[in-house]
Specification:
By secondary structure, this protein is an alpha+beta fold. It folds into three domains: 7-50 and 138-233, Gyrase A, domain 2, CATH 3.30.1360; 52-135, Alpha-Beta Plaits (2-Layer Sandwich), CATH 3.30.70; 281-355, Elongation Factor Tu (Ef-tu), domain 3. The chain is built from eight helices and 19 strands. The chain has a six-stranded mixed beta sheet, with helices on both faces. It has a six-stranded antiparallel β-barrel with strand order 14-17-16-15-18-19. The two termini are 36 Å apart.
Amino acid sequence: MKQTPLTLKHKEAGARMVEYAGFEMPVEYSGVTKEHLAVRNAAGIFDVSHMGEFWVKGSNALALLQYITTNNVAALQPGQAQYNCLPNGKGGLVDDIIIYRYDQEKYMVVVNAANMEKDWAWFKKNNKFGAGLENASDEMALLALQGPRALDILQKHVTIDLKKIPGFHFVPANIENVGDVIISATGYTGAGGFEIFCHNEGAVSLWEKLIQTGSPLGLVPAGLASRDTLRLEMGYCLYGNDIDENTSPVEAGLSWIIKLKSKDDFIDRKIIGQQLAEGVKRKLTGLVMTDRAIPRHGYKVFSTDRKEIGVITSGTMSPVLQKGIGMAYISTNQSEPGNEIYVEIRNKLLRAEVTKPPFLKKQ
C-alpha cells in the first residue's frame, strides 16, 4: 500500500488504519460519531493526501478543459475553483473533479484517489490540443481543516485575512516551517473550513501546528469514516457509490454543472443534451427512514404497492439527525420529495420518505 507523508502520525495517534484506493489511510481515531460531531460543532482535521493533483498548462490548457468537462471552465476567474465532472464518451462519468484556475494558462485539477491513474490516462488520451500536462500527485499533500472553528485555528498561522476568501476560492500563502501552501475555501463536509495543499516535506509540520493550535478549541483528527457520514448528511456524491462509469450527470442530479449554452463542444454533449431535453428514467435522490433502520449500499427500494423501483447507493445513521439517511437511484416517477417508499432491510420492507438533499443546512 502507498503511504501519505502523515501515515506515521496517524499510527502514533492510535488511528485504525485501512486500505483505501491503494493507500494506507486512517478510518477513525476516537470514534466516528465523536469525530463527526466535532466537525459539526468545532473542527476536525483530515489527511486527504491520497487525492490526485494534475497541472494543465499552456495556451491550450483551457481548450482541453472545456472539451473534457461539462461545466464552463472559461467562467472561472483567477483564484476561483469549480466543481466539475469528466464524461466518459458513453453517457457515464470518468470522475467528478475540482478545477482551480491560477491564470489563463495554468490550472490545477484535483481528482479522486481511486481514479487517479484512469483520469491521468483520460487526460492524455483526449489532449488533442497539445496542452501541457503534469501529474503532481506524488509530490503534494492535502489537509482538510473543517468546521466552524477552522478559520480561528488556521488564522493563527497566516498573515492573510481568511475571512476575505469566498467559498470556492483559493489563495497562495506561506506558513512557517511548512513553506508555500494553497489555501482553498472548499471541503467535503458542509461544515465550512479550508483545504490546504502543501509540499510533502511540509505536511508533518502543518499537521502538528494545526493540532497544537486547534486542540484547545475542540479540534480532533478525523478519519475516512466520519468524512463519509459528513458528506452524506450534505448529499454530496461519492464516486464508486453514487456516481460511476454507468451513471450520467443528469441522473445524478448534476445538471447544474452542465453548461450546454456556454460551451460549443465537449465529450458527450449530444447524449447529455438529449437526456436534459427528454428526461431520464431514474434519478439520484435522498431518503430519510421513517422506521428505525439504517439503509445501506445495495439495499433495494420499493414503492408503496411493493414494486421494486431502485437501489440504495449510500446510507448511514446521521449522527446529527439520529435517523437513517441515504441516497438512492429510484424511478423518476417516484422521486418527488415527500413520497413514501420502502427499503428492504433483512427481508423486511421498512418505511422511508424521499427527501431532497442536503439533509442538513450548510454551516
